[in-house]
UniProtKB/TrEMBL annotation:
<keyword id="KW-0677">Repeat</keyword>
<dbReference type="Pfam" id="PF12799">
    <property type="entry name" value="LRR_4"/>
</dbReference>
<dbReference type="InterPro" id="IPR001611">
    <property type="entry name" value="Leu-rich_rpt"/>
</dbReference>
<dbReference type="InterPro" id="IPR003591">
    <property type="entry name" value="Leu-rich_rpt_typical-subtyp"/>
</dbReference>
<keyword id="KW-0433">Leucine-rich repeat</keyword>
<dbReference type="InterPro" id="IPR032675">
    <property type="entry name" value="LRR_dom_sf"/>
</dbReference>
<dbReference type="InterPro" id="IPR025875">
    <property type="entry name" value="Leu-rich_rpt_4"/>
</dbReference>
<dbReference type="Pfam" id="PF13855">
    <property type="entry name" value="LRR_8"/>
</dbReference>
<protein>
    <recommendedName>
        <fullName>Protein phosphatase 1 regulatory subunit 7</fullName>
    </recommendedName>
</protein>
Amino acid sequence: MANGEEEEEEEEGDEDEYMLDLTSAQLHDLADVDLPPFLKELDLTANRLSLLDDRISHMSQLQKLSIQQNLFGDDAVNVLAQWPALFGMQELVLRDNKLSKIPPLKDFVNLKVLDISFNEVLSLEGMSIVTSRLQELYVQKNEVAKIEELEHLQNLRVLELGSNKIRVMEGLERLTALRELWLGRNRIRNVDLCGLTGLVRISIQSNRLTSMRAFEECVNLEELYLSHNSISQMEGLSPLHKLRVLDLASNKITEICDIENLTRLEDLWLNDNSIATLDGIEKLLEGCMGCLTTIYLERNPCELDPNYMRRLRAALPKLQQLDSHLVLH
């Protein structure tokens, strides 16, 4: 073995020494576990823990701590704010526990990723003191009713607020670095993207939308997910030249339109709508015929056209998936 390969293996081995993964160990406490103070990553996912071991308070090199899928309540997590050695940590995963509020994280000045999804958090109160260096925030599947206290997070790139009780899109104006916005399974009726033209991915699935006009200014969009709403018309799509994925399944759409300029479109989901006919489909799909590989139109009236599959295959030479059927060439 060459010396270079030996050195590379040694470096990888050394790096492993700084990580401790105790995922699914079914631990009720860490009394019998060796916890070196020099750890950089500690993963305690899927155990039965309800208290944080005091030895963690001395891990001054810790960059990532995951206590996902345990039994931690607010008081047990709040102790982190009393452990200065951890204040340089960059990633904190509190997902799937028993939290009812945002923990006090004011002094975690280098935090880049915060995940408090699948808890019982009632509001975003407390986010105003979280560092503006935060880049990813996940608060999926909680009880949050309002978007608030996020204005200072101007480095935020990913915001996940799906499966909450949000009715209004607000408080997003200053999040100019945002690239991904996930708001599925809320109670939103109207879209207000507050001028966030840098967005690349948006999901507002399973809400109460009736229109999709608000996306016209999001010219950098590559993925748009709007399934399971009450949208009746395809519109506002012409400026979205970068769009690769468009999901409008399970809406009230009666005809395919406004996709002629989507020359990069790869996936088009329109199943479970009310599209009556394939009239003019060849012209409509002409712009995306060079890229479109997946199209779903099943459970629309147009599926009853005796030439349904033949026409779509002829119009889309790159097609690989038509409804539940793989397309063989």
